[in-house]
Amino acid sequence: MESIQSIKQRFEIIGNDPKLNRAIEKAIQVAPTDISVLVTGESGVGKESLPKIIHALSHRKHAKYIAVNCGAIPEGTIDSELFGHEKGAFTGATSTRSGYFEVADGGTIFLDEVGELPLTTQVRLLRVLENGEFLKVGSSQVQKTDVRIVAATNIKMFEAIKKEKFREDLYYRLSTVEINIPPLRERQDDIHLLFRKFASDFGTKYKMPTIRLEDDARELLLKYRWPGNIRQLRNIAEQVSVLEEKRSISAFTLNGYLPNASSSNLPAVVGSDKKESDFSTEREILYKVLFDMKGDLNDLKKLTMELLKNNDTEKVQEENESLIRKIYRSEEEEIPQQESTPVEFLRLPETHVEPVAQQPIQEDKYHFAEEIQEEETLSLQEKEIELIKKSLERNRGKRKAAASELGISERTLYRKIKQYDL
Predict the structure, then answer these.
(1) pLDDT at 387
(2) Considering the chain, what percentage of its residues have pLDDT values greater than 90?
(3) Are 84 and 102 in contact (CB under 8 A)?
(4) Which of 62, 150, 211, 241 is the most exposed place for a label (fewest CB within 10 A)?
(5) Residue among 260, 179, 250 at smallest CA distance from 215
C-alpha cells in the first residue's frame, strides 16, 4: 500500500491538514475493493482528486475511468448520456448510441454533482448499483455492466432527502463509504502553502518573477473565509500574478482582489437553505397578490356587466359597496360607523345607460380577461428575468452560485438563460 505522502506527490495534492490526510487515507484503504464511495465537501475543495486515487489504486486501473458532471447535462438527455439509446428512441436519435455505463464496463465512473440527478434517473442508477443491470432509452433488452461508481456532491444529502429531491435508498447505496474533504478555511496551515505553489506555477507559466506576500497580506489571507475554497485561491493567485507590477504584495493590494474581505473573519450570515426558503416565500406572496388582484378585477368587471345589462344602479351600488368593503377591509374599520356611505367617492353615477346587446358584451368580457391575463404574465416574466440578471451580476456570471442564491437547480437556471436569451 502506498503512503499518503507518495500519493500526494503523485496526484499533486498540497497540504498537511489532519482531516485532509484522513480523507486520503480512507481513499487508499477503500481503493482495492469494489464498494461504492461518496465524496462530500463544499464546491472547490478538490473532490475530483479522490476518485482518481481510488481508480488508480484499484484492480480496475487499466480499464476506463469516466468523469461525468451530472449538473451540466440537461435533464432531457441525461438518461441517454448515461445508459445510451436505440435508434429512433426520440427525435434526433438517428443511430444507436452507447452510454457511459456501457463504455466504462470493467472500469470506474465518477458521478460529480450526483445530487443534481433527476428522480427518474436516480431509479435507473439504483438498479445499476443493486444488480449491474440497465436499459437503453427506447430498448426493452436488459444489459449488464460491471462498473465501480464513485460519486461526489456539495449539497447536504439528508436535507435533499427530506425535501424529496434525492432518494434515500440510493443515498445509502452510494455512501457505503463516505469521505469528507474539509473546506479551505479549516486548513489554516495549508492556505499560504497553496498560495505559494500557485504563485510559483503562474510565475513560470507567464514567464515573470513569482509574487511574494508581505506579513500583513499573509494575515489577511488566513483571515479570509474562502467561500470558493481552493478554486478561488488559485484564481486570486493568478489574477495578482498577472495584474500587479510589484512582486511584493501588501494587504491593501490583496484586499482589492478579495470580495467581501471586510467581513472575512465573521461566520457566514445566511445559509443556502434560508435563501431558498426566503425566495420561495416571497414568490408565493407575489403570486397570491396577483391572483387576488385578478379576482377583484373580475368582480368589478362582472359588476359593470350587470349595470350595462339591467340598468339597475341601486342594486349595483349595494354590490359595489360590499365589494369595496371586502377589498379595503382594514381601511373601512377606520371610518366612523354612523356614516351612511363609507365609500362615497366610489359611488357610480346614476345616469341612464342604454341596454347593450348581450353577445358583444360577452365577447368584450372575455377579451378584457385575456388582456388582464397577458399583462400579469408579462409582469411575472419580467420580474423573473430581472431576478436572474441581478443574481448573475452579483455572482460575476457564476451560474452555480446564482442558482443557489435563487433557490433553483443549475440545470433550471441554464434552461431559463437559454429561454430568455440572457
Answers:
(1) 83
(2) 58
(3) yes
(4) 62
(5) 250
Its sign, for the CA torsion 243, 248, 252, 254, is positive
* Residue-by-residue DSSP string for 148-215: EEEEEESS-HHHHHHTTSS-HHHHHHHTSEEEEPPPGGG-HHHHHHHHHHHHHHHHHHTTSPPPEE-H
Model's pTM, two decimal places? 0.62
Nearest partner of 103 among 52, 63, 62, judged by Cα: 63
Cβ atoms within 10 Å of 169's Cβ, excluding its own: 13
Whose grid coordinates read 462498473? Answer: 147
> pLDDT tens digits for 342-388?
444 444 444 444 454 444 444 444 454 455 454 444 567 777 888 88
Q: Indicate the SS3 state at residue 74.
A: coil
CB burial of 265-291 (b: ≥16 within 10 Å; e: otherwise) equals eeeeeeebeeebeebeeeeeeeeeeee
* Average pLDDT of every residue of the chain: 82
Q: What is the rounded distance in angstroms from the CA atom of residue 148 to the CA atom of residue 132?
A: 10
